[in-house]
Amino acid sequence: MNRQSLRIGKRSYLISLGTLLILMIVAGLLTMILPAGAYDRVIVDSREMIVEGSFRYIDRPSYSPLLWFIAPFEVLIAQGAAIVWVIIVFLLFIGASFTVLLRSGMVERLMDRLTARFSDKKYRLLSAVSLFFMLFGACFGVFEELIVLVPFCLILA
Fold it and tell me: Where are the domains of the chain?
């Protein structure tokens, strides 16, 4: 696999950025259109539970459109930000380890062996690799590792 095929082009980057901006605008508009509501909550056995049938409409908060774009950064300094930072660091480690595997040629050799061995069953192999990553995510409750699945699936497809 050559390095050029792994680079993200300027056009792809701008399309991704545009998509994110559009999604942020749509989410912001929906907060202005949809009615706001809340459930009553109680603590049962140190777990927060929703009281059944307690939904009620509340006054809609008036968020400035500027907050729609600041929100992704506010998450980094909010009260529960430690979890967000752990996920970010985890993704950085996954990216770094995957880069090491790519540059060492290990992924390319592994994929060459797999595709040679399963050349007539390519889609079964793709399904098995996908199932492996999904089971890994379901068992450990972490779904960020699915990012690693994308290059494998692209190579197999």
Answer: 79-157
